[in-house]
Amino acid sequence: MAVACSVLIILLVLTAARPVLEDTGKTAACIKVLLVEETMVKNTSNKALNISSMPELLYFDYPQKAGWQHILKIEVYWNSTPANYSLERSSDGDYSLRVRPLQLYVKPGGILNITVGYIILLNSSGRIGWQPPINPTNALNVTGLWNYSNPLVWEAYRALSSGTGTNKTVYLYRILSWLDKNVAYRSRVPARHPWEVLEERMGDCDDRSNLLVSLLRADGIPAYTEFGFLVIPGYVLEGSAAGGHFVYRVVNGGPHAWVRAYINGRWIPIDSTFYFNSTGLPSDHIVYSAYRIVKIPLIITGWTLRTDYVESDASTLNSMENSGILVNDTVEAHIVGTGCRESGSS
């Protein structure tokens, strides 16, 4: 279950407090990060919970294979007992970790704890030049999430693209300027669809990213939303949804989302919410984005090309509330070492 990416304010404070930018040519130190997610499921109903009825509980974010991030170790536990797992590739081409259940049912009043831990080596100096293994032709279509034929989205596209001609950069900068001026930063679990962002004039990192993707695809620019985890020691994010049936806590960091757009033959990361406002120009969303601030450790955990995760998350939350289960999800990140030497295995 994805949680809101409410890291904007703390990140802006961090960037204002000290310089954190490095040029592409400079080398950032390698670090090792321990990332642990624990999901506690309590069955508050009067009948046994069949785990197979909510398979979403068994899927966890997985640090994707990239040239600058490597998994050194994986450990998985089911109620403190080591458990098996498999890596499953989605239709979008990214991977999730699926825990193999050691039991099929949780009795009434029973509690299940699933813990997944990674040790990840990050060499941030290779982050900026990395190109994801995605064919641009797979990032163009109308989807349930990026339905730019929706009247609100299409009208926004017509207004923002008017007079831009074939200059894709001018169009992109016009969208970013419009988002800055017209969409307030507000988080919600589950996330908003792009047309909801236009209706409510509010959204967080993935809300705004998904609207940006819709508007870019409407103009024939390949684009998709990418997800990650920013390691920020001392930062804590807490919240709940589904009438309190889903409670989340994130320690020493937070989830984040941004856009990849294929422009001039390369995938360019564009951050619609967190960027260092250096010049006051729309290009800051690219040049000074969180992705390019290499002193802030970032772990790429996935992407979506066609899947409507907003709808599936809403369905999962509804199932939690209707089935009478409580889910408490905690994610913690800790920097546990430095140096570029790999040890362990994935």
How are the secondary structure elements laid out?
Layout: H1 8-17, E1 31-43, E2 49-50, E3 59-61, E4 69-78, E5 81-82, E6 85-89, E7 95-99, E8 105-106, E9 111-122, H2 151-161, H3 168-182, E10 184-185, H4 194-200, E11 202-203, H5 205-218, E12 223-241, E13 246-263, E14 266-270, H6 284-287, E15 298-304, H7 309-323, E16 325-338
Parallel strand pairs: 10-11, 13-16
Antiparallel strand pairs: 1-9, 1-16, 2-8, 3-7, 4-5, 4-9, 6-7, 12-13, 12-15, 13-14
Describe this structure in words.
There is one protein chain. With 346 residues, the chain is of the alpha+beta class. It has one domain. Helices cover 22% and strands 35% of the residues. It has 7 helices and 16 strands. The strands form 4 sheets. Strands 1, 4, 5, 9, 12, 13, 14, 15 and 16 form a 9-stranded mixed beta sheet that branches. Strands 3-7-6 form a 3-stranded antiparallel beta sheet, with no helix packed on it. It has a two-stranded antiparallel sheet with strand order 2-8. Helix 3 packs antiparallel against helix 5 and helix 4 packs across helix 5. The longest helix is centred in the middle third of the chain and has 15 residues. The radius of gyration is 20 Å and the shape is globular. It starts with 7 loop residues before the first helix and ends in an 8-residue tail after the last strand.
Multimeric state: single chain
Tell me the number of helical segments per DSSP (H or I, 4 or more residues long). Answer: 7
Q: Give helix and strand order, one letter per element, not per position.
A: HEEEEEEEEEHHEHEHEEEHEHE
Number of structural units classed as domains: 1
What share of the residues does DSSP label as strand, in percent? 25-35%
Percent helix: 10-25%
Look at the helices and sheets and give the structural class.
alpha+beta
Low-confidence stretches: 7-28
> How many strands?
16
Ends distance: 23 Å
Mean pLDDT: 89
Rg calc:
20 Å
The rough form would be described as: globular
Mind describing the biggest β-sheet? Answer: 9 strands, mixed
